[in-house]
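Q: Give me a backbone?
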Amino acid sequence: MEDPLALEKFVLATDLGTVVEERPIRVLLADDHTMFREGLARLLTSYGDLEVVGETANDEGAVALALVEKPDVVIMEVQTPFEKAKEALEQIRAIQPTPQVVIVTVVEAPALIRDFLRLGASGYVLKSASSRQLVGAVRAAVFDPTGRDVVVGMPREMLEEAEGGLEDVLSARELEILLLAARGLSNRQIATSVHITEGTVKRHLHNSYHKMEVGSRGEAVRKALYEEWITISEITEEGASPECGPG
């Protein structure tokens, strides 16, 4: 059955409103999982009104390809280190004409959603969402760029936290460091991984403990898991954790 939404077209018009061209929505994919990226490219192309103009495995590649291909939308995976992804998002949004950006991730974190939407992302879609939901987010980014940001696959209570800006929710950097701590990295190893000083890592952890009302790394990790700020799959995503050094 033909998808009725596939009849939508991205229409280019002159300042006077005269239609000069019709073309598909040009999409750039950035995801380090090759099989997922290639499968997503085939799926998006099958919708008819979407055209995949480039694929890359990382943030730097997304910025470089966006400069060349001038996509309408960049679908970008987000994983640690989050600050690197934020920098890439800002660079992509600075390109002219400005591409829309839809974040695709496994990370269910209100603070992270808030940060990326504030930086200009049009949508935040969990990888557990359906393909139709992702396509809807892409179309919404193009056809309604000034409308409400699209967040797909989040429980309502987590969306309320993301929109409410609660002070007791961890920042994206604090969440990133807590996730690395959960993977068994020492403070020194975390500092090396995210390119900050060991003292800064300790300060972020201290702030996290205070916000979470806990007294140790273990308690913080257990509470983060209970609150679903991080998940077991995220902790084990990088494979076997290195042996902990002094923290």
Notes: The two ends are 58 Å apart (CA to CA). The chain has two domains: 4-163, 172-236. DSSP finds eleven helices and eight strands in the chain. Residues 1-21, 239-247 have pLDDT under 50 and may be disordered.
